[in-house]
Design brief:
5-stranded mixed sheet, 298 residues, 20% helix, 5-stranded antiparallel sheet, alpha+beta, 19 strands
Length: 298
């Protein structure tokens, strides 16, 4: 009887051990399932399509981190050490629009950019495409592209541009055309000794402010030459009708805010030295892409 009790206890003990091991095995599976589910929300990876027989291939990954979109390129086939400009454009690869977000140049197949926009918000903005250019000197040659949220442009470029201009704050529709912006070259408005940016020294309330309306698009300004006299007070009323841009002239420490499509910014400075000075867009590679003009102080 005693021997049977021992056998019964041994049997029950072994059964309990088997059940415990089975429970441990099931518990170890749960974290794997959770990890697999989480990995599906970490981002979206797109395969780049070769363009112009470039031989370039690879991927671009978009993921969200702390409310920002992180854009990461991993490509092969590019020339070693060559900086290749990259952007997120409006539209699709087949119908490419203006630059929405400049990206860090791809060098030796790699690039990482942090954009101040959430991933869901970016993908809901409308058709978008990511592309890479051959080099800074051959920026007009596209070497790879991919549509990141599909779809076709719903309006043609002219309609989009007209709508963007109509929605631009603080301007009426009469100033939307480039001709109107150029007509404003000689416009003068009141007097002032203050404003955003650099205003110069020695400004008095009697000095006339020469105001210029400058509209920016990819990749040019509506005014590419401004002529003033030495010691003139210059005001730039700047707006973007297409893309993300600013207006900068280093020699007078004059710089507008960077604004996206429909945005505006104004600066005022004193042209206190004579000569010819280059103004330009400091965003990404826009200056190298020809987004420049001349400020002539006589």
């Amino acid at each position: 009887m005693i021997r049977m009790d021992k056998r019964l206890k041994l049997t029950l003990g072994l059964a309990g051990l088997v059940l415990a091991l089975a429970g441990c095995k099931q518990a170890t599976k749960a974290p794997d399932a959770t990890k697999e589910a989480v990995s599906g929300t970490e981002g979206k990876t797109y395969t780049l399509q070769e363009q112009n027989d470039s031989g370039l291939s690879g991927t671009v990954k978009l993921r969200e981190e702390a409310g920002k979109t992180i854009v990461t390129f991993a490509v092969t086939g590019g020339a070693s050490g060559v900086a290749q400009p990259a952007h997120i454009h409006e539209g699709t690869c087949a119908n490419l629009g203006g630059v929405v977000y400049p990206l860090t140049n791809v060098v030796n197949g790699a690039s990482v950019t942090s954009l101040d926009v959430a991933l869901d918000a970016l993908l809901l903005q409308g058709p978008r495409a990511v592309n890479i250019h051959k080099s800074q000197s051959e920026v007009s040659v596209y070497v790879a592209c991919v549509d990141i949220n599909g779809g076709e442009m719903t309006d043609d470029n002219d309609s989009d541009e007209a709508q963007e201009q109509d929605n631009a704050p603080s301007y009426d529709s009469s100033s939307d055309d480039a001709e109107d912006a150029e007509d404003a070259d000689s416009a003068t408005q009141g007097s002032s000794n203050s404003g955003q940016g650099s205003t110069g020294q020695g400004t008095t309330s009697q000095q006339t402010v020469k105001t210029y309306i400058v509209a920016a698009r990819n990749f040019s300004y509506s005014i590419d030459e401004i002529k003033v006299k030495k010691d003139d007070i210059v005001k730039i009323d700047f707006r973007s009708v297409d893309g993300f841009h600013d207006w900068v002239v280093d020699e007078f420490d004059a710089r507008t805010a960077r604004v996206n499509t429909g945005g505006t910014s104004s600066i005022q400075f004193k042209a206190d030295k004579t000569g010819t000075f280059e103004f330009y867009c400091s965003v990404g590679q826009h200056r190298q892409m020809g987004m420049v003009g001349r400020l002539i102080v006589e």
